[in-house]
Amino acid sequence: MNAQIDPTVPPTGTGCLECEETGSWWLHLRRCAACGHVGCCDDSLNRHARAHFELTGHTVIQSFEPGEEWFYNWRTGSGILGTPLTPPTSHPERQTVPGPAERVPADWEQQLGAAAEAR
Fold it and tell me: 17-118: which CATH topology?
């Protein structure tokens, strides 16, 4: 078994942990396969999933989007095979993308575009 995947740890919630704490919003969600941390993806404004990897060294994430089961290794920059994780394996299907709906600004696409250009 991959030491970076603990299939017994549940996710930290249904949204990005840090965005929930700060009142921000996200595009897509990623779940740390080692500790269950749910963070926002690299296309989101805050990139909390990557920040979690950089802080902890936990290298493997899984998509936390409904219908997606892929795993990714930050260090190698490639997809990998993973062990099924403890449910839930995605945010609720009724949760909007981007989300959460009540915090997504009307100009969200422009904000994401500007953030991507600034990187």
Answer: Herpes Virus-1 (3.30.40)
